Amino acid sequence: MRRGYSIIRRNYRSSFGEVDIIAYDPSTETLVFVEVKHRKANSLSSPLESITPLKIERIKKTALQFLSEITVNYSSVRFDAISVVDGRVEEHVENAF
Fold first, then answer.
1. pLDDT for 25-35, tens place per residue?
2. What is the CA angle 33-39-42, rounded to 5?
3. The pTM is what?
4. Which CATH fold topology does 6-93 show?
């Protein structure tokens, strides 16, 4: 929301999986599907390292399901990832996959 996006849905679920946040960026007319990964500060890996190819495939299939159900006008679709460490956003990667 700090970037001016409108949140459309949170925790959207389909038979393929879940998308944490679906947002709309009015400045670019883009639907943004966001994967949010959490970790504690003393974790051995970064939150974004845990987004596997299988997880990406499930998110994309879930996004397609969502797109088939809505009538929102948009120009493009993007997949972002947000890293949260100890409750604070550490990184927001646009076009993460």
1. 999 999 999 99
2. 155
3. 0.89
4. Trna Endonuclease; Chain: A, domain 1 (3.40.1350)
